[in-house]
Design a protein that fits this description.
- The complex is a heterodimer of chains A (482) and B (428).
- Helices cover 26% and strands 34% of the residues of chain A.
- Chain A is an alpha/beta fold.
- Chain A has a 10-stranded mixed beta sheet, with helices on one face. A 6-stranded parallel β-barrel of chain A has the order 13-15-18-21-19-16. A two-stranded antiparallel sheet of chain A has the order 1-2.
- Classes of the chains: A alpha/beta (482), B alpha/beta (428).
- The interface between A and B is medium-sized, with 34 and 36 residues.
């Protein structure tokens, strides 16, 4: 075992390989939040009046709200006045129009991440709306998308070019007063992604935003809005890494999905933000509100997430199943190590007839971390013939780790069926013995077992993400066996 | 936001004084702590689904006075202690005369015994979780203290019948404390019944402490009338290799709330918690259970079944908490529900909170209906639809009733449940 311990210790010491800071001059606001800051933010972005009004309304609402404390996470209070609410790479007037024009510094950043933008885009056939800090700096593959009629742009752009869509849908799924963090986001969101798939169009490629948090003390408030018109289909990928920082960074994003009749939205996330060091110092606070409204008949919204990063995760991608026969899915792998804390899960609100939902959640906690699944499955009185299946399993690695399950099930319809099951266990000695007996070292054995544990979720990910996710899990778990 | 309503001071007026002074002092202290206690609202997590049923107006604040004689329809087959409105009625009771078993009402305790008891009351319950049951500690007027010396065995079950006479408005606060010495054995049947038509509240607290190797079986039947709110709390602390079994048969009412908290404090302790809940009309029942695995090598097994019909509301919240170092814990929880009509609501929340890695924990929850194919199968063999649904519903819960170790209670429960279920299917 001595040898193993040594290996393990070496692995434990391994540092976050994506930790670095890109030295780019940023045009950053002074820390603090008040109405003036919001006016300035809106002005910098040249927003129309209706957006400013919307932001101010949210801000006033936010002032009256209290930070939620029900989640199973502990962290020092965030000082919202000590955060800068805007940071953009300099020279916004000569924003690059293609990859060649992109600041080479930026490209090097992506290269360090191991996922060169152009290579990735070219190889995978993925259009990337890369969000570097708060302003979209490179948008590629716009043309083939435009040909299909797909709108894929930053939300700032959408506010100018498609105000009618923004007005109609922004805040329709996550209203401004929905919760403390969503409300803060509504007031201060800096940028984000806007996707519109017209009627009957199957989006010709998988869309992706690759964003990372950069400049110190810049809370990043992303806002994503995806609208799938009747009979359309889109698959959207979101992935994140963040540089190493000692100070906690706040991230409060909002994602809204709208699926109309027969539309399908598949939203996949790989989240690998800086989780803090092995003593729990630093790391990102990830307070995200994600919600999809399946408004139309036969519509489908599917969330897949692999969460390995962030010091604190507070995230519940949800589906409101309003349309008849609409389908909601949630596949999640949440891994916590060291002192990470995650409180994540989903909400499936069944309102329409014959709606169905599936929840598969796999939590893995190692080290001193705490990993909670919190979910709500709710059947309204009109949810005739609705169906839910939930399975949430937890795997514990190390005797100081914690795993929790808080499922809320509320049912008001007699013609519906809900099933929930959960298990918690550790990697069993028998499994380990079997692997080691066949010459597999413990590190690899655990990785194999964990990968097997997560397989149900990984198979839902788009191929290129599945590869990344498997690798991420391996890296994140290193050092937790012993 | 308007401020949360507070407990009316009328509930803290001095109650009956026929208790030894240490207990009166304890009551006074507990009462002081409740001054301005905020009442649960929808925002109170553990009252989320029930607070709207709760009514604590001043008419309930007074103690109940008894006029007539209430009675149980249970065939009492062993020993029995009868309480009326929270005060023991010795002439209606028959207590065992068995070596090593000492059963006395609080009012009869000497000061030194009462001091000892006062130190131990409430120590099986987490007072933050049972806000309203704390009212009992400030208001109880009598109680039953059951002490089992090491290795004492009570040969027949002890029935504790708590009758509430609601011919006037008010509240009753029955209280039971059981202390089981090492390797002692007892079966206790608590039955809550009521007569009278006025609105009333029963706020009952029962506590069990089990020393090494003790075996305690508790059966709890709640069949108060539809004018009676019932708020109950049961706590149990388990020593090494002891075993606690709880069987609850729950009939709905205007507000029915029961908190069951079990702490497995020494290695080898195990518990089995079974519950059957049926609600109809506009009834309500809310069961909250907590199993704390404090020590390693403990087992727990929990099974609750709810049937909700009409516009009724059944709630189950089960929590399993595995403490750090409680390795080799085994915990299983299952909650199955039958939702028989749209309009009825079932809310369930089976929670796991786990801080140790070498454990096996699982929970399962389902909400569904009777299997149409099964009904069809029976109907096609000439059984009426009404009979078929009754049969299948009974089958759904009977598995748990069958486990009740007291034959007379088992049969009586089966009869009552069968009657209840038959009533529910009016359309035949």
């Amino acid at each position: 075992m001595a040898n193993t311990d040594k290996q393990v210790n070496e692995l434990i010491k391994r540092e976050y390989e994506h930790g670095f800071v890109t030295d780019i001059e940023a045009d950053t606001f002074e820390p603090g939040l008040n109405e003036d800051v919001i006016r300035r933010l809106s002005a910098v972005k040249g927003e129309p009046e209706f957006m400013l009004e919307w932001r101010l309304k949210a801000y006033r609402r936010w002032l009256e709200m209290d930070e939620p404390e029900w989640a199973h996470v502990h962290y020092p209070k965030v000082d919202y006045q000590n955060i800068s609410y805007y940071s953009a790479p300099k020279r916004p007037e000569d924003m690059p129009q293609s990859l060649d024009e992109v600041d080479p510094e930026l490209l090097r950043t992506y290269e360090k991440l191991g996922i060169p933008l152009h290579e990735r885009a070219a190889l995978a056939g993925v259009a990337v709306d890369a969000v570097f800090d708060s302003v979209s700096v490179a948008t590629t593959f716009k043309e083939p998308l435009a040909k299909a009629g797909v709108i894929f742009c930053s939300i700032s752009e959408a506010v100018h070019e498609h105000p009618e869509l923004v007005k109609k849908y922004l805040g329709s799924v996550v209203p401004i007063g929905d919760n403390f963090f969503a409300c803060l986001n509504a007031a201060t969101f800096s940028d984000g992604t806007f996707v519109y798939i017209p009627k009957g169009v199957r989006c010709p490629m998988e869309l992706s935003t690759y964003f990372r948090i950069n400049a110190a003390n810049t809370g990043q408030f992303e806002r994503t809005l995806i609208i799938a018109e009747e009979g359309s289909y889109v698959s959207y990928l979101e992935g994140c890494t963040a540089p190493m920082r000692d100070e906690n960074q706040l991230h409060a994003a909002v994602v809204e999905l709208v699926a109309l009749d027969d539309a399908q939205i598949k939203y996949s996330t790989v989240q690998n933000w800086y989780p803090g060091d092995e003593n729990g110092i630093g790391g990102i606070y990830n307070f995200v509100t994600k919600r999809g409204a399946a408004i139309g008949k036969n519509s489908k919204i599917s969330w897949t997430q692999v969460e390995t990063g962030s010091a604190i995760t507070w995230k519940y991608p949800s589906c409101i199943l309003r349309g008849e026969n609409s389908v909601g899915e949630f596949y999640s792998v949440a891994l916590t190590n060291n002192y990470q804390q995650a409180d994540t899960g989903t909400k499936m609100i069944h309102l329409g007839k014959n709606t169905s939902s599936t929840i598969i959640s796999k939590g893995i906690s190692a080290g001193h971390s705490s990993n909670a699944y919190r979910g709500l499955v709710k059947f309204g009185p009109g949810a005739e013939g609705a169906r839910n299946f939930t399975q949430c399993d937890s795997l514990l690695i190390g005797d100081r780790s914690a795993a929790h399950t808080f499922p809320y099930i509320e049912n008001k319809n007699k013609n519906s069926i809900v099933e929930h099951e959960a298990t918690t266990s550790k990697v069993s000695d028998e499994q380990m013995f079997l692997c080691r007996q066949r010459g597999i070292d413990p590190e690899q054995a655990v990785s194999m077992i964990v990968n097997g544990f997560c397989k149900e979720v990984f198979k839902e990910l788009p191929m290129e993400f599945a590869v990344e996710a498997g690798k991420l899990l391996e890296v994140s778990l290193e050092g937790s066996v012993g | 936001m308007k401020p949360a309503p507070k407990l009316s001071s009328a509930f803290l007026e001095p109650a009956g004084q026929k208790l030894p002074s240490p207990l009166l002092e304890l009551r006074r202290q507990r009462g002081t702590a409740l001054v301005d206690m905020p009442l649960p609202t929808r925002k109170t997590e553990n009252w989320k689904y029930s607070s709207r049923y709760l009514k604590l107006d001043d008419t309930l604040a007074g103690s109940l006075t008894s006029t007539g004689k209430a009675g149980t329809d249970l065939a009492v087959e062993g020993y029995h202690a009868v309480f009326r409105n929270g005060v023991m009625v010795p002439e209606a009771s028959k207590l065992p005369d068995v070596d090593g078993i000492d059963i006395r009402r609080f009012a009869d305790l000497s000061d030194s015994e009462a001091t000892k008891l006062a130190e131990r009351l409430d120590n099986t319950l987490d007072s933050n979780a049972v806000q309203l049951a704390r009212l009992n500690s400030a208001r109880f007027e009598d109680g039953l203290l059951i002490q089992l010396k090491p290795e004492a065995v009570l040969d027949k079950p002890l029935f504790i019948v708590c009758e509430t006479d609601a011919s006037t408005s008010g509240s009753a606060y029955p209280r039971i404390y059981l202390d089981a010495g090492h390797h002692s054995q007892i079966t206790v049947v608590e039955e809550y019944t009521s007569t009278g038509e006025q609105s009333a509240m029963v706020n009952a607290v029962t506590e069990f402490t089990l020393a090494e190797g003790a075996q305690v079986t508790s059966v709890r039947l709640s069949s108060d009338g539809q004018n009676v709110q019932h708020i109950g709390a049961t706590g149990a602390r388990l020593g090494g290799n002891s075993r606690f079994e709880s069987h609850a048969v729950c009939f709905g009412g205007p507000l029915r709330r029961h908190d069951l908290q079990v702490r497995l404090e020494q290695p080898g302790a195990e518990c089995k918690l079974n519950g059957v809940v049926v609600t109809q009309g506009k009834q309500h029942y809310d069961n909250h259970t907590t199993i704390e695995h404090v020590a390693p090598h403990c087992n727990s097994e929990e099974t609750y079944r709810n049937i909700a019909a009409d516009q009724s509301h059944a709630i189950f919240n089960g929590r399993i908490h595995i403490h750090p170092d409680a390795q080799k814990s085994n915990a299983n929880m299952s909650n199955k529900n039958l939702l028989l009509s749209t309009g009825a609501e079932i809310d369930t929340k089976p929670e796991l909170e786990i801080y140790a890695d070498d454990v096996k924990c699982a929970h399962g929850a389902t909400i569904g209906q009777l299997d149409e194919d099964a009904i069809f199968y029976l109907v096609s063999r000439g059984i009426s639809r009404r009979e078929a649904t009754t049969l299948l519903s009974m089958a759904f819960i009977n598995e748990l009733i069958e486990q009740i170790p007291v034959a007379s209670v088992k049969e009586a429960s089966q009869g009552r449940l069968n009657h209840f279920i038959e009533q529910t299917f009016v359309e035949g």
